[in-house]
Every structure is written in structure tokens, then in C-alpha cells.
Amino acid sequence: MAMPHFKISKLLTNTDITTRKLELPTLILEYIPFMKGDHSMDLKAADIWGQEWELHYYTRPTGQKCPVFTTGWRQFDEAKRLQVGDEFIFYGHQVRVADGELKMLYMIEVKRLISMTFQGESNIITLDVEYLA
């Protein structure tokens, strides 16, 4: 059963940036479980501007579970110009839709550490990659 809300994050690796998949922390399986017998599903996640990104969520059908986003990840990666070391954040929260049913809404964002110098003082700040384009 899905949780009312969750948040997971990870630092992006070279593999995440250069391949067509994003390896997810296995903790996500607790929050977005597969229906019995299934090992993949499509879901939509909105960025901070409300643009929806369709992502294919997949894990191996047998053996060790290794959840990934496949189809759709590369488009997001290229559109946002992601870099190794960026922090990927994926979260969801339940909302009640017009017919009274509960639905999970997913959000996706990526943050980057930036070094800035102001008045001779060097600082590290975190910015959403949306503002760096």
C-alpha cells in the first residue's frame, strides 16, 4: 500500500547521466510497490514548473530487486542538463480527487551545489537546476 507521502533522494552518478536509466534507492519499493506479478509501470512526475514527465518504473522480475526509471529518464536528463553529483529528489503525496478516490501525485526535482564568491567571501549554495538553464 502506498504511503500518504514520501521523499527519496540520491546523488547522480556517471551511470545515471550517461545511460538511459536512473538507478533508484531500493527504499522506493516501500513507497511505490508493484501490483502482484507486475515488475513495471508508467507514472508521471511533475517538475517545479508543473511540466509532467512520463517515466517507466521497472525492477527485475526475479532475483535482487533493483528499481530504475528507464523510458523518459533520458529526456528529463537532457532537458535539465543534469550533472554527476546533482541531487535527485523524488517525492509523492496522496490527494483526494474529484470522485473521492485517493491518488498519488509525484514530483521530481534536482538540486546542484554551486560555489559563489560575494564581497570576497566564498560560499556554497544549493540551487534547483531549473534556475540554471
Automatic annotation (TrEMBL):
One Pfam assignment: B3
Main localization, broad class: nucleus
One annotated Gene Ontology cellular component of this protein: nucleus
Domain TF-B3: 7-112
GO MF annotation list: DNA binding
Subcellular location: Nucleus
Top-level taxonomic group: Eukaryota
PROSITE patterns tied to this protein: B3
Protein name listed in UniProt: TF-B3 domain-containing protein
Keyword entries, A-Z: DNA-binding, Nucleus, Transcription, Transcription regulation
InterPro entries (alphabetical): B3_DNA-bd, DNA-bd_pseudobarrel_sf
